């Protein structure tokens, strides 16, 4: 038997059903006996939504009102009534089992499953298997329109069935027409058989199988063969504490491939609020894209297309040790962080205790190490069931030795990323020989509190300089030379942000008012007025939001240089982008005495290992450009100024609360550095006053 099911929400209708997160307000169904070709009673049930504000389209199409819905039952009770009435109708027809049949995928996958998941109640088993009438119709009549273009009305017209929407209530004529279409398909001329229903996965399957399969193809196939890019999406704006199960719940109703959730990590090995998700086919991926800006808790999640290559970079790996560790099926993975460097397997097992036994004992532990074998303080642990994992998570921030240990849920993809990240760390913690001279550009980025800049947020990732200039329109002429700065993420790709320097604060204000939420391609772009100081902070890794300005790590009040100050750079950046970096990232040298004859400085960046030394900068500006001149560079000859070997030292492993006094005390008794090198490091006024005091030693 089939149960023909139709539904509607308080928002969009038709092809956009469920895309706006609006709640279900109507269910109509009827039982159909495929053998005797008899039908049960047609039932129509209104559903009381939490938000009774109906869209104009809903009011017009359905004829429903908030007053009428206010008297209805909530969804959980309606679904209970649905099960009871279907069972009763089946008994009358002499049947016991049934499968749902709906007009397309949207009602089941995009409405019922997401809504019940958010409201924390379970759907009965019948909602995990259903027939898509559009697909069945196209199978029976191959010459009909494509599945995505089918509707109840077009299918009825193809068969010559009359449909008069005015004679029946909304929902009733749809179900009656669907039943008539099914009976026509069952006729002797077609003799259609319903054999392969659509399925919805009960839960997300964790595990490395899909990852290892990807890796196998990646290593063994030619370069032209990649993971199907039509099945991968990128989710942005995720809460940092969200796990793969949380992401799977956000996409409830859609079938994610086994091990298909890959959480992305930042340069410090922490989750950055993004994830790549691989679905079983392109149809599921397209449905996932319709959940763009749906909510996870109080946060909206952005969903974009991604490529199989991007998924491989995050989820793939080459370690046999990792492959062996992840080879066990259906395991829950927990990440431990902050372990003492002297911790052994026995110490970890003792810390976890008998209430949360590790799968395979010592074989269920994976310590993360540097290439030279030194421990990093991280480890991954396998548990055979959710109960043991929950017991382990209760030990979050308990003490092992003299350190508290952090425990988090993890995924197979995160194991790969963390291992790959640490294994790519250089064995020698010194900067390699600089080989690329970079000429500082002849332009500067304005600073100060004058709000003569604008920030563009939400740019399409494919947007280029020409798109921005076209977006600006007539205001392009008011941009300063070299005043467009595209902000890149840590992978060197567009982040969706850009800064533009205008000729005055009035011009910036007018552009912000005129262009705010103006469309660029298929997205609206937010435009805000800001100052040069705020722009510099964001370009150097800070954040600018409603809560105010959060400075980048290099601007925090401490004496220590951010990274390798001997090379006059606040952050090491990709070599291919180094020629165009703005002055904000290339601090000028300071010398004890200004001299007109002093040779200009040249900044150096390492070529091969550049990415390995990015220690704090979260965003990098792309080559600044202007509407008239792009990529201008100085042509004068420059002479590098580099310190003598051994003149500077780098300190690693400092406690986070270390101050200037503790560092100076650590070096007490050592001779101070010559004044010639003071200018090689950009110092705050506080630091300079300390260093200029009479001492026998000094720390730069």
Automatic annotation (TrEMBL):
<dbReference type="InterPro" id="IPR012337">
    <property type="entry name" value="RNaseH-like_sf"/>
</dbReference>
<keyword id="KW-0694">RNA-binding</keyword>
<dbReference type="InterPro" id="IPR036397">
    <property type="entry name" value="RNaseH_sf"/>
</dbReference>
<dbReference type="InterPro" id="IPR050666">
    <property type="entry name" value="ESRP"/>
</dbReference>
<keyword id="KW-0539">Nucleus</keyword>
<feature type="domain" description="RRM">
    <location>
        <begin position="332"/>
        <end position="412"/>
    </location>
</feature>
<dbReference type="InterPro" id="IPR012677">
    <property type="entry name" value="Nucleotide-bd_a/b_plait_sf"/>
</dbReference>
<dbReference type="InterPro" id="IPR035979">
    <property type="entry name" value="RBD_domain_sf"/>
</dbReference>
<feature type="domain" description="RRM">
    <location>
        <begin position="231"/>
        <end position="308"/>
    </location>
</feature>
<dbReference type="GO" id="GO:0005634">
    <property type="term" value="C:nucleus"/>
</dbReference>
<dbReference type="InterPro" id="IPR000504">
    <property type="entry name" value="RRM_dom"/>
</dbReference>
<comment type="similarity">
    <text>Belongs to the ESRP family.</text>
</comment>
<dbReference type="GO" id="GO:0008380">
    <property type="term" value="P:RNA splicing"/>
</dbReference>
<keyword id="KW-0677">Repeat</keyword>
<dbReference type="GO" id="GO:0003723">
    <property type="term" value="F:RNA binding"/>
</dbReference>
<protein>
    <recommendedName>
        <fullName>Epithelial splicing regulatory protein 2</fullName>
    </recommendedName>
</protein>
<keyword id="KW-0508">mRNA splicing</keyword>
<keyword id="KW-0507">mRNA processing</keyword>
<dbReference type="GO" id="GO:0006397">
    <property type="term" value="P:mRNA processing"/>
</dbReference>
């Amino acid at each position: 038997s089939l149960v023909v099911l139709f539904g509607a929400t308080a928002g969009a209708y038709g092809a956009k059903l469920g895309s706006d997160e609006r709640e279900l307000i109507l269910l109509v169904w009827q039982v159909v006996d495929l053998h005797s070709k008899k039908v049960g009673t047609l039932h129509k049930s209104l559903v009381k939504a939490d938000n009774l504000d109906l869209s104009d389209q809903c009011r017009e199409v359905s004829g429903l009102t908030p007053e009428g819905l206010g008297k209805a039952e909530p969804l959980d009770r309606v679904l209970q009534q649905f099960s009871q009435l279907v069972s009763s109708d089946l008994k009358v027809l002499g049947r016991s089992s049934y499968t749902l049949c709906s007009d397309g995928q949207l009602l089941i996958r995009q409405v019922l499953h997401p809504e019940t998941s958010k409201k924390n109640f379970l759907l009965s088993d019948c909602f995990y298997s259903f027939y898509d009438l559009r697909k069945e119709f196209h199978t029976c009549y191959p010459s009909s329109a494509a599945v995505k273009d089918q509707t109840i009305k077009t299918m009825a017209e193809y068969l010559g069935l009359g449909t008069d929407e005015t004679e029946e209530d909304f929902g009733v004529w749809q179900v009656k027409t669907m039943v008539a279409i099914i009976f026509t398909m069952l006729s002797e001329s077609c003799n259609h058989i319903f054999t392969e229903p659509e399925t919805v996965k009960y839960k997300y399957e964790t595990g490395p199988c899909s990852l290892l399969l990807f890796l196998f193809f990646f290593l063994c196939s030619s370069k032209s063969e990649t993971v199907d890019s039509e099945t991968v999406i990128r989710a942005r704006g995720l809460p940092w504490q969200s796990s793969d199960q949380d992401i799977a719940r956000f996409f409830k109703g859609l079938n994610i491939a086994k091990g298909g959730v890959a959480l992305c990590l930042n340069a410090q090995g922490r989750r950055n609020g993004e994830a790549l998700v691989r679905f079983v086919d392109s149809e599921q991926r397209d449905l996932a894209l319709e959940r763009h800006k749906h909510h996870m808790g109080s946060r909206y999640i952005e969903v974009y297309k991604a490529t199989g290559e991007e998924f491989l970079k995050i989820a793939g790996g080459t370690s046999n040790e990792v492959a062996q560790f992840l080879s066990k099926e259906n395991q829950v993975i927990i990440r431990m962080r902050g372990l003492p460097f002297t911790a052994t397997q026995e110490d970890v097992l003792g810390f976890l205790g008998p209430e949360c036994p590790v799968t395979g004992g010592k074989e269920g532990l994976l310590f993360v190490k540097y290439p030279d074998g030194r421990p990093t303080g991280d480890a991954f642990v396998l548990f055979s069931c959710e109960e043991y994992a929950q017991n382990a998570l209760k030990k979050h921030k308990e003490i092992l030795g003299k350190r508290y240990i952090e425990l988090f849920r993890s995924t197979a993809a995160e194991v790969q990323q963390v291992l790959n990240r640490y294994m790519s760390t250089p064995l020698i913690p010194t900067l390699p020989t600089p080989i690329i001279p970079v000429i500082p550009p002849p332009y500067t980025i304005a600073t100060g509190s004058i709000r003569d800049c604008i920030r563009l947020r939400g740019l399409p990732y494919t947007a280029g300089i020409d798109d921005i200039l076209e977006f600006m329109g007539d205001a392009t002429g008011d941009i300063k030379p070299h005043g467009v700065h595209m902000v890149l993420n840590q992978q060197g790709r567009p982040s969706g942000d850009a800064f533009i320097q205008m000729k005055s604060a009035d011009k910036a204000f007018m552009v912000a008012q005129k262009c705010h939420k103006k469309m660029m391609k298929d997205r609206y772009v937010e435009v805000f007025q800001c100052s040069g100081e705020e722009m510099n902070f964001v370009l150097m890794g800070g954040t600018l939001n409603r809560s105010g300005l959060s400075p980048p790590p290099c601007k925090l009040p401490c004496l220590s240089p951010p990274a390798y100050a001997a090379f006059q750079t606040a952050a090491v950046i990709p070599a291919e982008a180094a020629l165009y970096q703005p002055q904000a990232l290339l601090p000028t040298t300071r010398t004890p005495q200004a001299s007109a004859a002093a040779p200009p400085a040249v900044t150096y960046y390492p070529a091969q290992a550049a990415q390995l030394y990015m220690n704090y900068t979260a965003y990098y500006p792309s080559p600044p450009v202007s509407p008239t001149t792009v990529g201008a560079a100085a042509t004068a000859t420059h002479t590098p100024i580099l310190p003598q070997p051994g003149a500077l030292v780098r300190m690693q492993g400092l406690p986070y609360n270390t101050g200037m006094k503790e560092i100076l005390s650590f070096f007490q008794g050592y001779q101070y550095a010559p004044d010639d090198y003071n200018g090689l490091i950009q110092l705050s006024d506080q630091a300079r006053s300390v260093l200029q005091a009479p001492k026998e030693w000094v720390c730069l």
